[in-house]
What does this fold into?
Amino acid sequence: MKKFAVLGHGVVGSGVVELFYKNKKSIEKKAGCEMDIKYILDLREFPQLSYADKFTKDFNVILNDNEVTAVAECMGGLEPAFTFVKACLEKGKSVSTSNKELVAEKGDILLAIAKEKNCNFFFEASVGGAIPIIRPLHKCLAANEITEVAGILNGTTNFILTKMYNDKMDFSCALKLAQELGYAEKDPTADVEGQDACRKICIISSLVFGKHVYPKSVYTKGISKVDLKDVDFANKMGYAVKLIASVKKLDNDKILPAVMPMMISFENIISHVDDVFNAVLVTGDGFDKTLFYGRGAGKLPTASAVLGDVIDSVKHDITVFSQSWESSSDDTFIAPISCFTAKWYMRVSAISSLPKEYDGSKLVADNGEISFITNEMTYENALKLSEKLSASALIPLLA
Ligand code: HSE
It folds into this structure.
């Protein structure tokens, strides 16, 4: 019998317990042994629950119980999650987490401890909710040089954008609904302003390129300044506006991670990824392109990924070496955002002639304003041009 503990009984933690007991028999079959939850850590009390006897408010009870060999951390936030996870790993207990902030800020430290103590720090649930993306990147696609990862990594903003554009729901109602459905972070600013997507692209970048990428090194712009007028103009030109998190390896071997609203052609399948769904497009030398798609947030989708990790930690008594990266003492391996190259959408007041940078494709003119697409250029040059034209909007296109 393998026993594990769940830290936190919020949206994700309660989902882990619910899904585990719903599918216990088949989970045990897949794990190859009997399993049970021994403790659930939470400061609140849940006397009405059938498993109320498993609750403890004392983390040390879990830490000092040698019968507990695996832990699911579902508390979120940096502290006390970091202290608790570090202590568990130091005792040789494997940890599975859904906590993006923890992995993005402290992943290198926790992975090193797991390696030293021959246990595992798993975080499949930290990126893309239910979508398997972490394991494919370091296992299934391990034979390739991965050159680019780009996609929709925040369910809340995708849900809000979809509700606003398709259902004409206003921003605050759409956000409230996302919160009610358990998609949003405790502080939804992290979703809306792009920090959540930033943490996820940091995790992907660190795993794919082997060095810890910290959120502070990544250019991040959320959706709060996206004007519905541009979404409408974009639609008329055959594009959807989505919050895209991406990382690319450049010719000089530096990497360029970024989070920003981007325009995606209706011919690209990602433009049709709506609601809480996430999609991650991975590019590599052997396989060309592979798309991962699924529910990116919510109670049971996230619990599914956490439990998958717990089952894996029960099956593996040794560290999974492929899932690791080095610490980084500086960010010189990260290129500045000024190098970001794309075609750009610009909206300007009606002008007598379009600039020579106009790419000659479709344009939209409406009510004294005109929107057009430029030739490919760096962010630095696009900014200069938009300043010269006093543009009201500047949005890159996803290639
Ligand atoms: N707030 C996050 C999102 C939860 O909306 O994607 C899943 O990480």
Q: What stands out?
A: The first strand starts at residue 2 and ends at 7. The first helix runs from residue 11 to 22. The CA atoms of residues 1 and 341 lie 54 Å apart. The chain has a mean pLDDT of 96.
